[in-house]
């Protein structure tokens, strides 16, 4: 009999997710740690679901890892009670979870980020929005009024051309672009670094989520708090979900700059930068970003501009696969 595919999902959730304030003190696996474990399981012709069987799990771990790491995986995989309560709690707010073991995992993220992609994504709203032609919009939290007006108008223009708008959901440029898109009856997605649990039921989101026009997603569990590291890691998901990306305003340091330089390196989507006098914008253009006029009334059609001036779409970044263990070698998970 074919095993229930949900068993792989449950195993990945147990290994890689946190389930709230009263969770076990065992630290969930990072992306790199999960990749390493997955590679070792593959070498042994096993799947994550096999770790749900205590006998199979303990035999595998005794042959491949240290007692310390074996204990960590054991404690993570035995949190079924906490997981069921968390899934029920999240489900009451319409929050779903999807893992890399499932076909419905966001296809662009799987294809473009490969093993850099989070093992689990959480969200609320219609996941089909993640497959639409899309424009990512990013910029400083402290942008001036002109930049915010530009972002809002850009979101509206994207909606008019049936492009979904993807942002990081932060104050400033991100929210202005989503506002402009939704005001023009468009569709938008925000990739949150924290606060999905509360954002799922926030009054200003509820109607748009119910109408299928807004999706909120996160590679971090719904009750995760903000960290600067997570904010930096979130940027790649914004850009990987888009066909084209526009940075409205960047400084020479910070999250927008970091995300822009990372995108130029990996080419998940074509990067356009507003041709303004902002130092960060000019520096990104000098590094190879494509210009978009500083005034939107100079553009007849966004898609035409993007398609004519983009270089050939970058090939997907190939993820590495963990190597099988050498004879006598022990698995260690710390990344």
Number of helices: 14
Assign the CATH class of the largest domain.
Answer: Alpha Beta
Helix fraction? 40-55%
Mean pLDDT: 91
The largest sheet has its strands arranged as: 1-2-6-5-4-3-7-8-9
Low-confidence stretches: 312-322
CA radius of gyration: 21 Å
Helix/sheet category: alpha/beta
CATH architecture of the largest domain: 3-Layer(aba) Sandwich
Question: How many separate domains make up the residues?
Answer: 2
**3D shape:** elongated
Distance between the termini: 36 Å
CATH fold call of the largest domain:
Rossmann fold
Beta-strand portion reads 5-15%
Q: What characterizes the major β-sheet?
A: 9 strands, mixed
Q: What's the total number of strands? A: 9
User: H/E order of the elements?
Assistant: HHHHHEHEEHEHEHHEHEHEHEH
From the structure above, extract its key features.
335 residues; nine-stranded mixed β-sheet; single chain; Rossmann fold; alpha/beta
Explain how this protein is built.
This protein is α/β, with parallel strands linked by helices and 335 residues long. It folds into two domains: 6-92, no CATH class; 122-309, Rossmann fold (3-Layer(aba) Sandwich). It contains 14 helices and nine strands. It has helices spanning 6-16, 31-43, 54-64, 67-77, 80-91, 107-113, 145-160, 173-183, 196-199, 203-210, 228-240, 255-266, 279-286, 302-309, and strands at residues 96-99, 120-124, 134-138, 164-167, 188-191, 214-218, 244-247, 270-274, 290-292. Strands 1-2-6-5-4-3-7-8-9 form a nine-stranded mixed β-sheet, with helices on both faces. Helix 3 (54-64) runs antiparallel to helix 4 and helix 11 crosses helix 12 (255-266). The model is unreliable at 312-322 (pLDDT under 50).
């Amino acid at each position: 009999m074919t095993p229930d595919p949900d068993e792989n999902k449950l195993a990945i959730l147990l290994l890689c997710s946190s389930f709230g304030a009263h969770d076990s003190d065992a630290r969930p696996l990072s992306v790199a740690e999960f990749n390493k474990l997955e590679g070792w399981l593959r070498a042994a012709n096993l799947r994550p679901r096999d770790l749900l069987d205590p006998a199979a799990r303990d035999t595998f771990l005794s042959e491949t890892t240290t007692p310390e790491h074996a204990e960590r995986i054991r404690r993570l995989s035995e949190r079924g009670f906490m997981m069921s309560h968390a899934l029920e709690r999240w489900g009451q707010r319409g929050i779903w979870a999807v893992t890399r073991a499932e076909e419905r995992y966001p296809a662009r993220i799987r294809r473009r980020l490969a093993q850099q992609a989070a093992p689990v994504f959480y969200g609320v709203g219609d996941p089909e929005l993640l497959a639409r032609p899309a424009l990512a919009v990013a910029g400083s939290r402290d942008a001036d009024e002109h930049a915010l007006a530009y972002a809002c108008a850009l979101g509206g223009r994207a909606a008019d051309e049936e492009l979904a708008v993807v942002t990081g959901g932060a104050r400033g440029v991100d929210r202005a672009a989503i506002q402009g898109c939704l005001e023009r009856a468009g569709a938008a997605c925000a990739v949150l670094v924290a606060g999905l649990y509360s954002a799922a039921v926030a009054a200003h989101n509820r109607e748009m989520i119910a109408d299928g026009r807004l999706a909120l997603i996160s590679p971090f569990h719904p009750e995760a708090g903000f960290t600067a590291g997570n904010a930096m890691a979130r940027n790649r998901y914004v850009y990987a979900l888009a066909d084209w990306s526009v940075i409205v305003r960047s400084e020479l340091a910070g999250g927008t700059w970091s995300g822009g330089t990372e995108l130029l390196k990996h080419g998940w989507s074509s990067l356009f930068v507003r041709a303004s006098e902002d130092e960060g914008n000019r520096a990104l253009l000098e590094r190879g970003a494509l210009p978009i006029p500083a005034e939107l009334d100079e553009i007849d059609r966004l898609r035409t501009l993007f398609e004519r001036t983009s270089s050939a779409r970058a090939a997907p970044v190939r993820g590495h696969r963990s190597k099988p263990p050498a004879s006598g070698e022990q698995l260690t998970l710390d990344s």
